[in-house]
Amino acid sequence: ATAEKMGFTSTPSTNVGMSGRIGMSGRKGIGVKIDDLITIVSETLASQFAGSPNQIDVRNAVIKFDMLRYDTFQDVIFDVDSALNLKGFTGPYIQYTHARAVSVLEKSGQVFDISKLPSYFILNTELALTSRELEVIALFGRFPEIVVSSATSFAPNLLCNYLYTLCQRFNSFYNDAPILNAEDPRVRELRLLLTSAVRQVLRNGLYLLGINAVDKM
Description:
Blueprint: H1 2-5, E1 22-25, H2 34-48, H3 55-68, E2 76-79, H4 80-83, H5 91-108, H6 117-123, H7 131-140, H8 143-152, H9 156-176, H10 185-208
């Protein structure tokens, strides 16, 4: 019943042993039932994200991501306020970063084919990449490896860690390097391609965790 409430379908599954203790701090309440937990998170979201059309998707991200980000041998301690932090190791932070990338791409008025990213580097070898750009690029190649490792090890926390690191690096890049206002048109296109690639990786990664990416928070 709990799985159905969280959107999981009835499919064959493998039980994975976890640490024996799950602590719930829903406003310091311990041992919160799933129905009560959903209500607590929903009420908090209603005040913090009033008018947002994606409250259900954000609510599910709050709960799912916070449960999945732990190693299977760690105690799970769920705190509503921490799980809603838009700047922390949370599902909403991943969704927020995805929405930021979507916003940049929409403002550009262009559609980008991220498969062209490798060839773009080859054709524009004279472009000097910033350290922030290189940090983002370095993570792209690891995504398939992380997905396989997460699946074969029954360790979704590996994917959670990867997505969080990618968001941190993209947001540092976003804050330090002008994207839409880059003076060189080639640099602008490169940065928009990177932004498009980040958007796609975050969307794919969230999907694998059973979480919907949102275009607006």
